[in-house]
Amino acid sequence: MFLNKYVVFAVRFFLGIVFVLASIDKIMAPDAFAASIVGYQLVPYPLVNGIALVIPWVELLCGIFLVAGVYLRGSSLLVSALLGLFVVVIISALLRELKIDCGCFGKEHATPVSWMKVLEDFGMLILGIYSYLFASSPQRRTVSGSRPASS
Predict the structure, then answer these.
(1) Neighbours of 135 (CB within 10 A)
(2) Could you tell me which of 12, 19, 2 has the C-alpha nearest to residue 127?
(3) Residue range 81-98: average pLDDT?
(4) What is the pLDDT of residues 120-147, one digit of tens each?
(5) What span, in angstroms and rounded, lies between the C-alpha atoms of 113 and 111?
(6) Cα separations in angstroms, 115 against 18, 97, 107
(7) Looking at the domain assignment, is residue 119 inside a domain?
(8) Alpha carbon distance 128, 56 (integer Å)
């Protein structure tokens, strides 16, 4: 069941769509995303704008790659790393009792940080790891271009 190609496809397609949708508003309004980053009080101010410009594009590219089925292991790894980071950052905000927007889907879909957000992101982290572990990898080939003999 866990290796069913349709399950693997559904997982990567779901994650891809989520990341594409999450990136759009952040790309369109990087200033609002930068304000969300500042709200977490974790990043030195000189780095905020750079992070606000880079993360949404990484989300978009990884989402597109997951949907298209290309660079699956790399995009799954990056998506998992981002989700792990998001979980830690949201927990940090909750423990410090910050009343801020999570910044997950941009200013148009403002959602406060909550333990539900942690569970959502953690669930997607599990899916990202699953996608990474079971992403199809290209067949190994020898120098001559043929497949290696089975042992």
Answers:
(1) 19
(2) 12
(3) 96
(4) 999 999 999 999 998 875 444 445 555 5
(5) 7
(6) 19, 12, 20
(7) yes
(8) 17
